[in-house]
Amino acid sequence: MATFYIANPARKHCCLKLFPSHLERFKMRLIVLLCLPLCALAVTELAKEWDFLLFAQFWPSSSCIYFEHSGCVVPEQVNGWTIHGLWPSIPGSSSQPEFCNNSMKFDEKQIEVLRPQLNVQWPYYNKSGDPTELWEHEWDKHGTCAYSLPILKGELKYFNQTLGVHSGINLLEILQKANIVPSTSDTYLPQDIYNAVYSGVQLIPNIVCMYNKEDKQHYLSEIWLCLNKDLTGRNCTEANTTEQHLMRKLGSSHKVLKFKPERQSGSHPTADVTSYFKDCPNNTGVYYTPIPRN
After folding, report:
1. Beta-sheet pairing, 206-212 with 277-278
2. Pick the catalytic residue: 45, 68, 108, 138?
3. Minimum mean pLDDT range among 13-22, 181-190, 193-202
């Protein structure tokens, strides 16, 4: 007697076990007809699992503080902000899409053609780690979730599109226009950094700081911008909505400081909102130090 089954409809593909007989062929056609709507629904649900992309950029000197004990190396060609990752995200949720398909193992050969750009725009600063470690981590954790979007489907598209987004946003110049420049002595209010980025991209960003236990100072660490699924810009949601997911990534034990920035003369109305800052102090400046050169 023939047997057949329909896979869990939450999976991408419906599975059938077939046997060669007229009766079984009839049953097969019937099951396929029943299965197609379920498969289509499953694919649709996968596409709806996340709503926007969070594009995170590192400031190299702050990354070097993070990797101080393991050693840090900044490629000579790096002279500005570099890529942390492109993360499928869900607003208002602490449970974000990650490691969506463990069978999609990272294959460096698939992005070998992008290696020159990746080395400059998406470097890994941990001197004791493999240069591809960050790329592998970002693909395994986030690229496999972005796979449901056609323009990000596969390693080559995921990394190439992210490089393209990065090439179109020069945070170093945006901050310079607001007289926020790397310095070993000056500090800058997180509110002013927010205002500068908002002026430059006309979108609400998230400002991420880090606390250095060694000197007990705060540093500007990352800037997050948000994208629609067609890679056009959109306002970011409050930074704390993805707190648990992203704090695990950053490895920080510090709580997010959810404060209402004080309105200053000339500040943007949208800056008067809680939680567009992570790990940043209220009413005191943060360091934005020059890129270290070995």
Report:
1. parallel
2. 138
3. 13-22
